[in-house]
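Late entry, written up from scratch paper. The run itself happened at the end of the previous shift, but nothing got recorded in the book at the time, so transcribing now.
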Amino acid sequence: MTAIPPSSRRGSQVIPYAPPAWHCDHRLAIGGILLSSLITIVLGFLGPSVVTVTLGPRDGSLLPPWYLPVDVDNPPNEWAVTIAVWVLLIIGGLSIAIALRALAAGWRPRPRRLVALGVGLSGATALVPPLTSADVLMYAGYGRLQLIGQNPYEITPADIYRGQFDPVMKWTERPWTDTPSVYGPINAWLQLASNALGRENMHDIVFWMQAFHLIGFLGACAATIWIARGDRDRLNRAVLLTVLNPLMIWGIIATAHNEAISVVFAVGGMMLMRRSGFGAGVGIGLAGCAKLSIGLWGLAMVWAYRREPKKLALLCLGAAIPMGLAYGLWQPKALVSVLRNGSYVAAGAWAQPVHTFLSWLLHDANAAKVVVGVLSYALLIVVAWMLSRLLPWSAVPGLPADADPRTDPMTVAVRTALVLSTAWLVTAMYTLSWYDLIAFIPLGMLAPSLLDRLFLWRNTFLSLAYVPGRVVDISPQLDVTVTRVREMVSPTVQGLVLVALFAWFFRHRREARQAGPASLDSAVPVETSEERAESAEQPAIKEQRAADAGPSS
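Output as recorded:
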């Protein structure tokens, strides 16, 4: 996968990238990404197990997902498939970390090859059944409710299948079968469309849901890559953190979640920040019609236009049109429903052990949830403020070299989106690994920072927490093991991520004080075009230049 940029050619001599250490070896990174995806595909192809969802009879359908004939009396060993998922997630997280280190050390791959590999792995993963999450079955159930004339924001699949036979809703799984839909109208329309195309066959409905999610994911990645196209280093970074990121391929494609449906519209709006305030508003408005949490990006866009009243007004108008039509006219009850997630405490999050302790201390789980909620919102504000002071100002590609990135609406919007998304993700009571797509997208558009490593740690262990991730019968021994990972290991890592952010901030303040009192009130560092060019040089090129210059006097 190694490619040689023009700057690494000296006459007819080509200086290839030579990894200085194993943790900077691009070959190891690409091999790990491939292995992680291969394990995913094999697990899905083996058919229903404790980690692979059961889709019901195929009824002669030739459509994906494809898997081996089901042997209900001899499913794959629960320990083998669970450990295999843990292994693929750890390999995936380590592989991206190594790839990013290789980029920093001078690896310059061809972006098109990386993109093609990512698209191929994502597409292949979508051809097997979803793993570790039965959420896609609930999406199908909500679409089925609409198809038979019911409102998924008012009633649940369990309300139907408990009283009558339904060929689709009978395959939905706990624990959300008694919960009305918490998804926006656009996701509801896609759920309805999948049911209309798949008819009464859950297998085919899931295929169409996976197809829509794959299109959304690839579209969001393509838009991110398009934004980063003006800088080859940033472009490679964008590819590795989005379309070739095994953690996101797992979280969005392998587990068939709908996170990318909102993000693809949001990135589309972000693409227009330098051109059209109204177009950017329409994009973020459509994103909010899929999932309301993407509104954090909307706030980032508002902040970017705060000194341009006309563009700000157009942004708000553009966002109001789809939001008003979707939530105001078509489905007013959806707005109340989609806010429901904020009242849950997720196992695997930092808040879970805190809530457990406070419930024991106060003898009241609801009171404990209120306290944790207040703490969560307070932390969100504090972490957002800290990140606004910490995150370096690096221009999103496409800005003239002599321009100040702090005056560029796209750079301000992307940076602020990362700040707000990070603050929300790491402090929320209810947070899941696939939510991290809204952070990996802006991370790919900006220069490297400590957030790269923190999100890889966070996402890997939060993903591990939800394996098997389904309410299915497992042995007591496996149940104890996965419970410890979910309720002890993952919350500890999530807490350490918060600690690392605070440590980063206080270290930054200490270094600023040592630099002088004036630096305390100065803005965070701004990366110049010269610094970007210097940091992009391969170590081998620098050594060659030093040798050509001769010994220093």
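The chain has a mean pLDDT of 91.
(Scratch paper discarded after transcription.)
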